[in-house]
From TrEMBL:
Keywords: Lyase, Purine biosynthesis
SMART domains: ADSL_C
GO molecular function: (S)-2-(5-amino-1-(5-phospho-D-ribosyl)imidazole-4-carboxamido) succinate lyase (fumarate-forming) activity; N6-(1,2-dicarboxyethyl)AMP AMP-lyase (fumarate-forming) activity
Protein name in the entry: Adenylosuccinate lyase
Amino acid sequence: MIPRYALPEMAELWSDETRYRTWARVEVLASEAQARLGRVPPDAVEDLRRARVPSPRRVAEIERERDHEVLSFLAAFCEDVPEESARWVHLGMTSYDLVDTALGFTLARATDLLIQAGRALRRALVGKALDHRDTVCVGRTHGVHAEPTTLGHKLAGFAFAVDRSLLRLTAAREAVAVGTISGSVGTYALIDPSVERHVCDALGLGVEPAPSQVVARDRHAQLVQAIAALGACVEQIALELRLLQRTEVREVEEARTAAYQGSSAMPHKRNPTTSERLCGLARMLRGYATTALENVALWHERDLTHSSVERIVLPDSLTIGHYQARTAADLIENLTVFPERMRAALDSGSGLVHSSAVLAALLEKGMEREKAYRLVQAAADETARTGEHLAVTLRRQGVDEPLALDGRPARNDIVIARLESLRELED
């Protein structure tokens, strides 16, 4: 991932330095288990523990000669290990015992960072929704004024969507937090299963129950799909904020720093650039979700078609998802809301947003449904044409009794009560 969208703590997890440090840890843990079985001398284990982690530059130098990253890493690692001890490195293992077990460890840590960011976004949405539980605004369907709602209700829907995404991510975290130390084609022919158990226990990983030499890639696909789903939820939030920031609407506005410049040519522009960025990144995540599914099917016990793909898809998905969630949380926390603009938009339709309330009142008074619907529809059409208030038009059409058209949505308290349950999760 390009540095522009990579936050430091996530970028560090996917650096070559961290990857080789994790590989070295897996090799040391495996040698410890082998020593317990009497297959590796204890002194060799101590030498491996003291060895320096090779630099990415040194591994790359060797790889130009060997064209195999794992063998190049092992060669570089063993340069700092006495020869009599170096021969015990990687005993009974195959390359992906090392790669996949280390990957499971990294994926678990990276997903933890993403879950933390998702929780921060949920917390921001819950807080802002509760702050605006009574901020009345117009609800829109098909982009057209529908009925009154509240900003709190709108944000509550987003908060629950993020909460569902967190449940999916938690399940996916469990799915990817596995390793395997089972040898060629996963048969344990040259390595005792206790080695696998020792390594995975030390790393906090589960064990692939029936390894084929690699960890099953449906696990990774599940994670990338969960990230894409969170990305789609963030996109939904950002898209709504983009629409509400249009000049003719301007019900909310993103926070601006003193350095903000919206256009190189038009100084007046206040563009929803953060929201637009979040929407664009969601497109990347959906593409990665499809690509991750392509990685599931491999030839026989394994092939290498997945390797080049997941070097991009896995770190990029987690990095983008993490950036998205953190940025969205900041966006929500610092959002400026214009309640007076919301009220003006609600009132601009001359009462048309209350047509369903009028219809319901007429039905309760005993009017036949089709007649009531046609009456209200005709009045609404006339109001749209003339601009007079719907109540005035209705009185002229014989609906004389006053109707409660104050613009306050009913039952908002139900959604707010449910929202309180999410706040309790944070406590």
